[in-house]
Amino acid sequence: MDALGLLSLRYVRLSVPLTILLLLIYFLSVQLPDVPLYGCNENGKHCNEKNKPVEKHPGIENNQVNLEIKPEKTDHFFEHIRHCEGKDFQISRLVSAFESCVTVNNEILLKEYLSGWSELVRFMNSLGTVFSFISYETTKKMKILRDYQSGPHAIEYHTLQSMVKYELKNHIVNFHEPPSDETPSGCRTLLRLHRALKWLELFLFKLANSHDNEKTSDLCIDTYQYALARYHNWFVRQAAVVAFLAMPEKRELFEIVCVKDKDEAKLVLTRTVHSLSKVYNITQKVYEKHRMLDLP
Q: Are strands 64-65 and 60-61 parallel, antiparallel or unpaired?
């Protein structure tokens, strides 16, 4: 195929998902729904997907990733990772933020947690326009939490645990569908980030352990369908899957995380996944304890 043909093929590859994304943003007024699938109807009956068992995912047991490289064996991790000159996303900042947000008592510091998410937004933006609708919604949720942190009850939003305790005690958490003009509670807002964190954690895990012939788009779609799709309506799910077909190739992703080869990528991504997984698992237990995993 000549140069013109290759250019045309790349244009089609990018234009189709981008067109769908523009339609998605138009129809949803740039607002991804937070409605879980079990709120839908099929043949006049509730889907009840909440009660369906989640299928086992390769390499995952009880929502925890089985890592081949333990953190204690990578004490010099930050000495080997390179700073990517001229790039907005730095994976060292991502790992540092999520590792520093966990205290010795396994509390989650919200300021550091949101710093980690700021870096994840930069990562998603580095993947191209196809991720803009996700990073946009993520940024809005981060702003809600930061407004609580700078508000009159800022001290109550120092950690995840203090936020949960305060909002439950003062009946701020709405266990029913909240009015559209009501600012969501901190617990509900963080739950949306929490769900997305599992998706990104699994995607990076599969990327680190993928074979040369595995496409990044397939990895992304697979982990999205496993971890996040059930919280979106049918239209969003279809648009997301099509959009992910324009994911950068593995070589481009390695450049984004600033690694030179597959072996280095596995070391860096495994450490990154471990930092995300630890935060996710602590948060999951807190929400399970207070029966808030299905907040509408």
A: antiparallel
CB 187 within 8 A of CB 159: no
**Beta-bridge mates of residue 64:** 61
Of residues 176, 148, 144, the one with CA closest to residue 296: 176
pLDDT in tens, 222-252: 999 999 999 988 988 888 888 889 899 999 9
pLDDT-based confidence at residue 78 (cuts at 50, 70, 90) = low
Is residue 277 a contact partner of residue 100, using CB atoms and an 8 Å limit? no
CA distance 75 to 237: 40
Q: Side chain identity at 220, as an amino acid letter?
A: C
CB of 74 within 8 A of CB of 67?
Answer: no
- Quick one: which of 295, 211, 282 has its CA closest to 63? 282
Which DSSP helix (H) or strand (E) runs through 64? strand 64-65
Amino acid at 243: A
DSSP one-letter code for 45: E
- Give CA–CA dist 114/289, Å, rounded: 22
Instruction: Indicate whether this model's pTM tops 0.70.
Output: yes
Q: At 43, is the secondary structure helix, strand, or coil?
A: coil
Which tokens sit at 77?
A: 């991790």
Nearest alpha-carbon partner for 193 in 143, 268, 157: 143
